[in-house]
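Protocol step 6 of 9: fold each sequence in the batch and record its C-alpha cells directly after the sequence line. For illustration, a two-sequence batch is reproduced in full.

Sequence one:
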Amino acid sequence: MKQVKFFLLLAAAGVLLLLFRPEGKGGKASADVVKVESVDPLKNPGQPAADYLVFRALTTGEARMAVTGSSVTKGSGASNQSKTWRALTQAHLRTAYPSLKTLKIENHGHSGYTSVRILEDEVTGPIIAGRPDVLIIETSVINNHNKNVSLEDTYASLEQLHTLYSEALPEARILFISPNPITENKFGPPVNALGLRFTDYIYGTQTFIGEKGWAYINIHDEMLSLMEQRGVKLPETLKDGIHPNDLGYSLWAEVIWPHLTAK
C-alpha cells in the first residue's frame, strides 16, 4: 500500500513539474502568446516594420517583403546582388530576428523606369500576386528628372501607387523612399528640359508625401549626412554618377536599417 502511495505521489510531482517548467509545453505556449502580443500591431501602434514582419511570421507562418522602383532598387552598379541595399537589408533582418531567418525580399526594381512606369501591370501584377506584408517603393525620381517627367505627373503617379497598393494589399505596410544622391553624369544634364534639378524632385516628393501623411525616408539626405560623418566623398560611392557601387549600397542599407527597426 505504501508503495502505491509513493508512486502516486511521484506521478503527481512529475505532472506539476511539467506544467510549471518554463521550457515545458505550458511554458512554451505562454511564451509564444507573450511574444505574439509584443508585436501585435493592435497593441503596439506605430511599431517598426520589422516587428510587423515578425508578427506576420508568427501568426501566418511566413513573412513577405518586396521592393519596387528603378535600377538603384534593382541593384545596378553592385558587384553582386548580395551587395545591394535590398540584399543587405534582407541579411540584416534574417540575422537580427530569428522569426525572419527565411525572409526573402522580392526585388521588383526596373532599370530606366520612372514613377509613372512602375505603375505598369508588368510591375504591379507580380507585386500584388506576391502579397507582401511590407512594400518599399523607391520613388524612381532619378529617371523622372532625366526623362523630363513633370512634378505634377510625378505626384500623381505616387498617389496612384499608394491607392493601388493600399486597396489591393490592405494589410501591407507601405513605405516610400527616395533614391540615392547622384553627381553630374552621362544620363542627363544637371538641369532638365523642364528647368528642374534632381533635388527638386527629391524635396518636392518629400513634401508631397509628407502632406499626405504616408511613411517616407529621405535616403538621399541621410546618405549624404553619413558620408560627411565618415569623410566619404559622393563620387566614391557611385559606379557611374548614378548607380551606387558596393560602398554606396552598404551606406544605403545602413541608413534604412533604423527606420525599419527602431521603436
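Sequence two, same batch, same settings:
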Amino acid sequence: MRKKREAPKEIARKKHLPKPKNEENKPIETPTYHFKKFTEKKKNIGKNSVQGQKSTIRLNRFIANAGVCSRREADELIKQGAIKVNGRVVTEMGYQVKPTDKVTYQGKLLKREKFVYVLLNKPKNCITTTEDENERRTVMDFVKDACNERIYPVGRLDRNTTGLLLLTNDGELAKKLSHPSSNIKKIYQITLDKPITEEDFRQLEQGLELEDGFIKPDAIALIEPNVLGMELHSGRNRIVRRMFEHLGYEVTKLDRTMYAGLTKKDLPRGKWRYLTQQEVIRLKFLMKAGN
C-alpha cells in the first residue's frame, strides 16, 4: 500500500491589515500603498528599456483608473467624442496621456483613483463577474463594503469552485496576473467522487494529453483516498476539472488554497481582506521577474 504523500505547503504570509468596521455613515477607509522603494528598484532594473523611460499611459487606461468604466467602455466614450484632454476632444484610439494633462468627462476633471487590492475567500454558488443580467449572486456582493473604488476580479473561478480570488483596480497588475505567460502558481484541494487508483495517480504525475494540449501538474499529493492537493501554474479554462474528467472522475469539491503566494490563512469562506503593502510589492516584483 502506497504511503500518503504530503500536500503541497502553502507559502506563509505576513499579518494582514484589519478589515474596516461596517459602521453606518462612516466613510470607507482603504489602505494607502507607498511604492517608492519598488518604483526606484524597477527603474534600476529597466533603466535602459523603453518601459523604464515611459511616463505616459493610454487614455482608455487613464479613464478606467479614474473609476469611470472599463477600458472597453472607455474606448466607446473616446469614439463618441465624450472625452476631452486639455480642453480638446480626443477620438484617437491609443492616445497617450501625460502626467500634466487634464482629462475631463461630462465637464468633470478625472483623477486617477488610488489602487485597492482585496483578497476574497470565494464561496460556492456565486459567479466571478462584476454584474449578472440574471441577477445571480456575484463575487461583488461579498466585497461591496470594501471600498468606493471600482474594483474587479483578476481571472475567474467557476461558480462552484471556492477559494482565493484577487480583486483590484490596478489594471496593469491584473492584466499581467491573468495572462497565460505569467505562469502564476496556484494550489488546489480537490475532492473526487471516488478514490483515485494508483495507475491514474501516476498518469497525473506524468501529465495528460487533453483536447487543447499537454498538461502536467507542478506537484501532486494524496491527502485521502479521494482527496488530493495539486500545485499548478496553468490558467487554462476549467483545467483541474477537465484533467480528472479525462480519467473518469467527477470533482465534487474544488478549493483554491493559494494564489501567487497569497494564502487564505485566517480568512473564512465568504470574507475578504486588504493585501498588505508587502504582499502587493511582492506581486509586482513577481510580475517584473516574469517579463
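Proceed to step 7 once all outputs are recorded. Observation for sequence two: The helical segments are 36-45, 50-53, 59-65, 71-79, 171-178, 198-206, 239-246, 277-290.
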